[in-house]
Each structure stands twice: as C-alpha cells, then as structure tokens.
Amino acid sequence: MLRPRLHEQLNNHFGFSEFREGQKEIIEDVLQGQDVLGILPTGVGKSLCYQLPSLLTHGTTLVVSPLISLMVDQVKQLKAKGYKSVIALNSFMDYRERTAALNQLNNYRLIYVSPEMLQNPKIEKVLHTLDVSLFVIDEAHCISQWGHEFRTDYLKMDQVIEKVGNPPVLALSATAAPDVQKDIKKQLGRTNMIDHIYPMDKPNISFAVEFHEHQDDKKARIRHMLAAQRLPTMIYFSSRQSAELVAEELNIALDQRVAFYHGGMEQMDRLLVQQQFMKDQLDVICCTSAFGMGVDKPNIRRVIHYHFPTQVESYIQEIGRAGRDGKPCASIVLYTPHDQLLPKMLMERELPEEAAIERLFAWLTNHSALLPDEEMHEQLQLSESQWNFLKYQLEETQVIFQNTIMFDVELWSKAKMQIRTNLRKRWNYKNEKFHQMRDWLYFTGCRRLKLYEPFQEGVRDAEVDCCDHCGFIIDDAQLMEEEAAGVITHNSWDVRLKRIFLQESINE
Amino acid sequence: MFAAILLDCIQSIHGERSISGIHNLIQGKKSSQTLQDARLYKLERYFGIYPSLSKLNAHKAAESLERRNFIRFNQENHPVLADEGEKYLEDSFMKDVNFFSGMEHHRNIILFEKRLRLLIQTVTHSELKDFSFLPIVEDPSVQAWMKRLYRNNVISDLLTSLYEELNSLLSALSHLEAELFTRRLTGGGLIGETREQLAHDYHLSVEDVDLLIKHALFYMYRTTLSRQENYPALALCLEGMANEKLITSSARQTLQWLNRGLSLEDIVKKRRLKLSTIQDHVVEAALIDPSFDIGSFISKEGQKDILTTLETLNTNKLKKLFEALDHNYNYFEIRLVVASSKHTFKEDRHAPSSTS
C-alpha cells in the first residue's frame, strides 16, 4: 500500500526513480510515528529521509542542523527543485529577515534551525505554537560528549523536544561509533529508538598512504599524479593559505583548471567555484574542510589529503565525497613527519589549556554576571570553541545560572576540580582520536579493515584494488572516465557572450 | 587600473592626505572627513567604487607604487606623485576614458550589478527550460525583484534584446574590460569565473580585475540611465533607483534641527554630541548641498578674506590657511568656506551626460 505511493512521491518531488540504501526503510518507520536512529554513510542522501516525510505529514518538520552553510545550501537546492515552503533560521539572518520569517513560520513545512537558535527565547516561543509532526536531529553525533564533534548547544535537546509536544524523533549521522549511538539515545531520553544502521565502508574506493620527506616532495607528487591522469580531484588542506598556494602552483605547472576554495572567500566566488566543479569546468579543487557540504558531485575520482585530518571520522566523511556514482575512486594521503604539528595546533585552538580555568575563576570573582560571548572571548583570550567548552562546564557545575555568577566557596572549589577533570578527559579523548588517525597512517595491514573497525564489524569485499597493503598502486589505477564534458575553450568575449545568450546559430 | 586610480587620487591630493585617507575614499567610508575630502580634492568620482578594498591591500599597492618610483612619501608620510608616476598616469587610459561617478552612483551600481547578473542567468536559463539553477545572487531583495519580473511575464522576450544591448555596450569598452566582464558572467549553462581565476589568466591583480569590471558596470549603468529608450532590457535593472543625495544620517538630523532654528550649541545639548561633531555635519552639508547658506556661521567679509587667501595659497591644508589668516578665523569657519567654494567649480570631464 505504502510502497508504490512512496516511489511515486519520490519521483514527483525529487525526480529520483529509486531510493538509495536505507532511505525507504527509515522513511517508512518515520511515517509510522516511530523514533528512529539512522546511521547512513556520507553520500547516501540522509536529508531525503526527512525531506520526503515533510511533504507527506500534516504538520511541520523541524530539523536541527549544526552547520549553517549546509543548512543554507540545502534550502537553496530544495528551492531550486521547486520545494518552496522551506526556510533556514540562522544567526546570519538580519533582524528584519528574521522577524519576517518568524511571523509566518507556520506557513513552512520544513524548518531548519541551528541549535543555538533553539535557545533564543523569541524563537522558542514561536516554535511552541507550531504543530510539529517530526523532529529531526542532523549530525546527531554532536549530541554526545564522547562524539568527535561535541557541540554544547546540542544539549538540552530533550527539553526542546518535550516543549514542542513530543513529536517522533529522527536522529541522523554518518559517523557514529556504537558507544556514541548509545549516548545519542540516552541524551534524547529515547532509549527505544529503532536502529537503522548501515555499513559505512565504500567498496569502490582504494586507499593509499605515501610518506614523504618535505612539503615540496608532496607538491611534486601531486603534480605528477594530476599530469598522469586528468580526473575530477579534490585536495584537502588544513589551512586556507596552503590551499591557495598549492592551487596557484598547480595552475602554473599544469594545463588543467585548478581552483581553491575556503571559508574566507567572497560569497559569489564560493558559489562559482562550487558550480564550476559541479559542471566539470574545473578539474581540481584545493580546499579546506569548508568545501563539500551539500556538494553532491557524482564523479569525483580522487581525494588527496595534503594534510591529514585530526580524526578518523573527518577522514571518512571527506573521502565519502569520492565516487558517489559507484565507479572506482581512490584516496591518497600524503604524509610528512612534520604534518603532525598541524592537527595538534588545531586541537589547541579548540580546547582550553588548564591554566585557563584559573584565569576564568579569577575573572568570575570580580564580576557578577557573564558578558556577551564575544566579550568573554576577548577578556579571557579564548577562542570561540574554548569558551563554549568552559561556559558549558560552568553551567553544568552550577557556578552560573542564566548567566548570573553564583558565588559559593565550597561549590566553586568542587566545580574547579570537576572542570579540570572534564577538561583532561576531553584532551585525552582528542588525543586518542588523533592517535587513532595517525596509527592508521602507519598501519601496515589492510587499511580498509582497520579504518572501519571502530564503527562496524568487518567490511564488504572491495570492488577495486583494496589498499596499498593489499596491492593497490595508485599510478596503475584505472580511474579514467570518458572525456570530461565541460572542458572550456577560451574564445574572445563576443563569442562567449553569444554562447551565454544562446545566439550561436543565429548570427554565425 | 588600480595603480592609475591611486595615482590620480595622489595627484589631486598633493601630499595632504595619507594612504589611509585615500583608502577610506575609494572604499566609501561614510564619515564626514571622507566625504569632505572627496569634495575638496574633486575626487567624488572614486568615492565608494571599491567597498571590499582592504586597508592592507591599499597599503600594499602604495608600496608597489613607491618601488616603481611612481610616488614618494613626504615628511608627514603622505604620498606625493613623482615624475615617473605622472608620466604613467598621463599615458593611462583613465585620463581619457573615465566613467566612474562613485559619489553619485556607487550604491546604485551595486544593486544594478546584482540585478543584471541575476537577470542574465534567469533569462538564459528560462530559454533552456532549466528552472532549477542555483541563483548566482543571493540577496533576497534582488531575488524578490527577479521573481516579480518573472511573474509579470516581463522577461519572456528579453533574450535577444538583452544580448544586443550588452553586445553594443561591451563593444564600446576596452577589449580587456569586455573580456573580464563576460568571463565573470554566469548564464546559458556556463559558470562565471572567480576574480582569482581571471587575475591568473590575464596576469592582473585581483584589484585590477575588480576595478575593470566595476568600470564597465559604471559605463553600462550611466549609458542606460541616460538613454533608457535605447536600452530597454537593461533599463529594467534601474527600477526604483532614486538618486539620494549622499549624506550621513547623523548629519541629516543635525540639519533638521538647524532648519528649525536651533543654534549649534542648542544642538550639542539636544543631541549630546561634541561641538566638533556638529560642526562636521555643517561642513558636510555645505559640501554636498550647493544651496546651503553658510552666512549664519561666518560673515560676508570673513568669507571673502578666507577665499582670497585660499586662492593665493592654492592649498586645501587648513593649518596653512589658518596661519596665513593670522589666526583671525577658527578652523570651522575656514573649513566651511573651503567647502562651499567647491561648488563654484563644475567637473566630470568625460562622462556621458546623465540628463535625459
């Protein structure tokens, strides 16, 4: 009864003829009002699991998503497809836009909201008036303290769910190890959620890690690989500057289109680079982790890591962008011993050092309430995420209550100890994650087995040469596809103008 | 082009302002000081033509001008044009063809550009029956404008006329400007290129790419504005653009109080601002509005005195004027007279007429 109708809806609204693995199963349970935990590998289309139900249920679907850029991208794409009654509430909206949106919120079927917005009393108030028929938590691993990307705004989600009338909950993630899955359910107070957990290994990807002496060797290696095979390729960097630098070098050295992409670029240029890559007008993109969210390009054949990420979870997500069409693809990590320092630095920017706790309490002694977050960063010399961590700890230990500082000698000394312990735990956790990643790079057995070991039991057989341990040699890889379609020849402006305006046949 | 614009500014300012002052002007800082500078040195055309220009890049560009011996820095660390720079400026096409009219149009140009880009994308993709493209312009008000045109069926026959209008306008520009402008356009299934890509391909700086495209837009905007009947498709992008006189809103409030007969001191009390700030507002008004009467702030004789000294010394440096006038007049009075004297000159040498 349900099935043919679902297919029809899928086709009508999204233009797909088939569900991908896991989508239909999740949607069916969601439509029956069940609480569902869905773990689907990147690239499978997690978002469809609530986008389609949002059209088929009577009320509003509320989606909490931690990444504003992802949220905005999805709204754009949905609108482009003709799904109009969708909106993203986020902190980038100016006052006027936000008021206008809030005033007509009940006209939207699908509402994306960032977790920090949920804490905003004005928004909270409006949300309570909605008839919410599905509550979705995207990137649900952020809920878990033991998740790799713990976000303090994600706590108290159970209270929010209660306030909007306890609708069915759908928690989605691409990377959540079993202990994190358990924690997600616990935090949401929904221990009976139905599991839909799908293996995240990619049978069509080959792995290789190469060790080099210097940065220059890595660059030379990239030039060599790109020149040997012209393929849609992503190269990941952990700094904007190196992404720009290498892109420029490659542009000079190769007869291919190379561009860089990072969060510091002008809005229109970001969009242009994304679109060029999507339409095969670019061969290579040198990017930071800011790229990729919401970019669903099917034919990426190579993902190269010029810098390796701080944790296996990010790595899995990043290589998940390759080979979405199911055809062979490869991941190559280029490593120099020096590269270890970068992830360490990134981690230090994320978590405070212990000395910051003393600084913090000294500050609290002289104040009666917290200042706005930006001023707290400034006064205590903390990064945004360092401050978020400490602020959350202060709330948990009841040193602050609704931004007011509660002074109590005994409470404070206990709190200090508690925070120190939690901070150490967090540091240990981060270090463990980092070592897990680095150990994988140095691992001498089958990389595929080792990579997915923390997440699932065993892996499916590889459809391609498995990894450098199992005999994969990147220079021999057959990743070639048919001649790329979008190669642009540069004509003079009047010819290009004619092409843009589709005037070629008229005046030639 | 960036070099030529900087040199042009430096020439007009003859060592009386720093690079930061010039940056503020080009970037379009809406402070009384910057607005006054633009008028004083007759550099209105460059006001606000490059809102995203960073201070750092302005300084870098000045350093490179110094290395090329185009400019040197005087004792106050203000840039002064050197002979090499003067020669370069004379040879640059900016001296003959300059369509910038920043003070008057810089804000409209921003809107014009966004509308034009989205219009081109929408018209060409409609022709391809592709209605699921990602709009290249994200500004919600521009998207709403586009939707309105679309709903009212305005764009259905626009393809050819838009093409022809752009083709004719681009033909009148330099080859380089036409290249950059077209390569940056998105439409008909082609994705535009980033500023960095264009800079790389044409061996230009990113600033040159930005300014050359901007210059092309100024030309298109002004030509369309003055001859709307010849450019009906482009003229759609002009909808509702009022030419507001440029003045800070704080200054506008001060003016309203003045018009109601309050003295400067009254306004100081009322607005709880410093006297110097209120005086800045008055000078700003004198600069921008030719009909603004400065008679209630300085006597006719005083005006004459200051004007004569201004003409003999031929400088805009207040300190020099102040001293030459034996401290008989305060800085506020001198600035007022200098400001209103600027209206006696008419300028805008090579621009197309914008009256129609």
UniProtKB/TrEMBL annotation, chain A:
Residues 221-368 form the Helicase C-terminal domain. SUPFAM superfamilies: P-loop containing nucleoside triphosphate hydrolases. Signal peptide: none annotated. The keyword Metal-binding does not apply. One of its GO terms (molecular function) is DNA helicase activity. Its EC number is 3.6.4.12. The keyword Ribonucleoprotein does not apply. Keywords: ATP-binding, DNA-binding, Helicase, Hydrolase, Nucleotide-binding. Residues 27-194 form the Helicase ATP-binding domain. NCBIfam families: recQ_fam. PANTHER family: ATP-DEPENDENT DNA HELICASE RECS-RELATED, DNA HELICASE RECQ FAMILY MEMBER. This is RecQ family ATP-dependent DNA helicase. It comes from Halobacillus campisalis.
UniProtKB/TrEMBL annotation, chain B:
This is Helix-turn-helix domain-containing protein. It holds the Pfam family HTH_40. InterPro entries: Helicase_HTH, YpbB-like. Residues 250-338 form the Helicase Helix-turn-helix domain.
